[in-house]
Amino acid sequence: METNAPKRRDNKKSLRVKVISLGNAEVGKSCIIKRYCEKRFVPKYLATIGIDYGVTKVQVRDREIKVNIFDMAGHPFFYEVRNEFYKDSQGVLLVYDVGLRESFDALDSWLGEMKQEMGSQANMDSIVFVVCANKVDLTKRRVVDEGEGRLWAESRGFHYFETSAQSGEGINEMFQAFFSSITDMCENGGKRPATEVSVGFTKEQADTIRRIRNSKDSWDMLGVKPGATREEVNKAYRKLAVLLHPDKCVAPGSEDAFKAVVNARTSLLKNIK
Ligand code: GTP
Ligand code: MG
């Protein structure tokens, strides 16, 4: 099977790896990297034009890791420039702004773009992903909470960190976990260690909780058409109840989602003859 195994240098203990940053424009990708590499924050927005490239050396246990960082531009305009840089990555920083829901919703399309560009080489199990919920310092404008972000990340076997490039919160911890996981993966023959993906709940459960949270009304929440019959409502309810019952589902947010589904069913049945 094909992996994205990194290039080993002569010294057995040193590794060379490639990481990339992905996410909508202005979410803070460049600032996160700058905060880690240069220990500073730039408040003025300087859009990345195409790609920024940098190298840093880190120590993980007894290994020296040479990290090649490709910081991608998030603006759609740069798609043509980005697309050839996806290949051969061992790590991906997926960044969104906790104050902009569309930047969180866009994570799926960023993964989609990456898969498409990697083509037959798309072996996502050989890549370590870290989701950065960035700009957590701006608490008043926050719209995507921790539970929602964590759920999206962990249900896919990705790390999740709350970060602020402005204050530095979470940045070092995030990079340490990122590089340490990449090293583990390389030592594991290019396969992401299995422990990271065993989170105790399924992607279906996680996606359903997310769908419920974002639903616009009770019909939408149960996944039935407005005007559905009692029977259809009950059938949809039973399916969701089995999937999300707190005795069976340990995904974060399942209890609230389950309660919301119970309430939605009650209110719909009240109005159906
Ligand atoms: P593109 O290169 O266009 O894809 O954007 P980017 O994701 O690299 O964003 P960049 O790092 O340039 O940051 C965008 C803006 O957000 C800048 O004005 C930063 O100062 C600001 N910013 C980045 N991170 C944070 C953060 O954690 N908190 C706050 N308050 N502002 C941030
Ligand atoms: Mg940038």
Automatic annotation (TrEMBL):
It comes from the Eukaryota. Residues 217-273 form the J domain. InterPro entries: DnaJ_domain, J_dom_sf, P-loop_NTPase, Rab, Small_GTP-bd, Small_GTPase. Its main location: nucleus. It is found in: Nucleus. One of its GO terms (cellular component) is nucleus. One of its GO terms (molecular function) is GTP binding. Gene3D superfamilies: DnaJ domain, P-loop containing nucleotide triphosphate hydrolases. Keywords: GTP-binding, Nucleotide-binding, Nucleus. PANTHER family: RAS-RELATED PROTEIN RAB. Belongs to the small GTPase superfamily. Rab family. NCBIfam families: small_GTP. This is J domain-containing protein. It comes from Amphiprion ocellaris (Clown anemonefish). The gene is DNAJC27.
